[in-house]
Amino acid sequence: MVAVSTDSLWVRVSEAEAVDIAFWVACCALVVYSTFGRLLDRRPAMESLRRHRLPLVGAGALSSVSQLTFITAITQTRVANVVAIVAASPLLAALCARLALGERITRRVATAIAVTMAGIAVIVSSSLGQPTLKGDFLALVAVTAFAINMTIWRRYPDMSRRAGLSISAVIVILVTSFAASPFSLDARAYLAIAAMGLCFNPLGRLAHTNAPRFAPVSEVALFTPIETVAGTVWAALFLSELPGVVTVAGAAVVLAGVLYGTAASSRAGAGSLR
Q1: How far apart are the first and last CA of the chain?
Q2: Distance between alpha carbon 68 and the CA centroid of its chain, in Å?
Q3: Tens digit of each residue's pLDDT (9 = 90 or more) over 108-125
Q4: What's the CA gap between 210 and 243, in Å, rounded?
Q5: Which phi and psi (to 5°) does residue 179 adopt?
Q6: Beta-carbon neighbour count of residue 108 at 10 Å?
Q7: 3-state SS track over 177-221
Q8: Which of 214, 199, 209 is CA-nearest to residue 162?
């Protein structure tokens, strides 16, 4: 999530149209998935495609929706709005996993989600709908697609992540190719997109989609609010979008919830092994 949290920074720094960014990031990511992606996911992609064709296509489609709507949202509203809404994923992911998989939500995780959501409410209390409601809505679509996708990855732990993410990249390329002008950008845009598409975005997504193999969806999703805090920090440091006192207070609450739900549960798991 720390790696993915830089997406909003690269999108803003590029100053390019959302469709051009999405096109080039998908092209770059496809290269990463087919090469370095094997370091994080050694499962044969073609074999997984034969065994899990429908869930792979579904995961790829949801990933492409999440990617497209997130990038567009960043160009339509403030970074703080988008990353704050993205932090709602713990609640959405836990609910999806409960409904689709019957996955139990422990009292500790439920408490952590409640604390996290309280922090998010503090952050967005004075900013939702500014400067545009459209960007906030797109961010909500992105996080909903993300939450449903986490449930699919959890349901099929032996499914190739590289295959699903590659399908997502292909879908994005096909959808954006009709409207993109990929060769009309300046050097600054290409450098920002390269950083996002060749490093941070694909590696972060590979790591995050592998996480549900080892932990329940509700616990994995608890890490997504890190993007809220980190994304706000990047915006403050490099885009001069300084957070107010309310945002800082909310971010502190979010981190407290994440630490309570993850570090404490890890200690509990280690104790049970002993």
Answers
A1: 30
A2: 12
A3: 878 888 887 888 777 777
A4: 32
A5: -115, -10
A6: 15
A7: CCCCCCCCCCHHHHHHHHHHHHHHHHHHHHHHHHHHHCCCHHHHH
A8: 209
Q: CA angle, corner 3, sides to 6 and 187, nearest 5?
A: 45
- From first to last of its 274 residues, the chain has per-residue pLDDT tens of 889 889 999 999 999 999 999 999 999 999 999 887 777 777 777 788 888 889 999 999 999 999 999 999 988 877 877 877 777 777 788 888 888 888 887 888 788 888 878 887 777 776 666 666 788 888 889 989 998 998 999 888 888 888 899 999 999 999 999 999 999 999 999 999 999 999 999 999 998 888 888 888 878 877 887 887 888 888 888 888 777 787 778 778 877 887 787 665 544 544 443 4
CB 2 within 8 A of CB 199: no
Give Cβ neighbours of residue 102 (< 8 Å, ≥ 6 apart): none
**DSSP letter string over 47-116?**
HHHHHSHHHHHHHHHHHHHHHHHHHHHHHHS-HHHHHHHHTTHHHHHHHHHHHHH-----HHHHHHHHHH
Whole-model pTM: value is 0.81
Residue (of 1, 3, 17) closest to 197 by Cα position: 3
Q: What is the CA radius of gyration of the chain?
A: 18
Q: Are 115 and 260 in contact (CB under 8 A)?
A: yes
The H helix count followed by the E strand count for the chain is: 14, 0
Six-digit token string for 35: 């090469």
Under DSSP, the state recorded for 242 is -
> CB neighbours (10 Å) of residue 211?
17
Helical packing angle, 7-14 and 225-238, nearest 10°: 30
8 Å CB contact between 106 and 265: yes
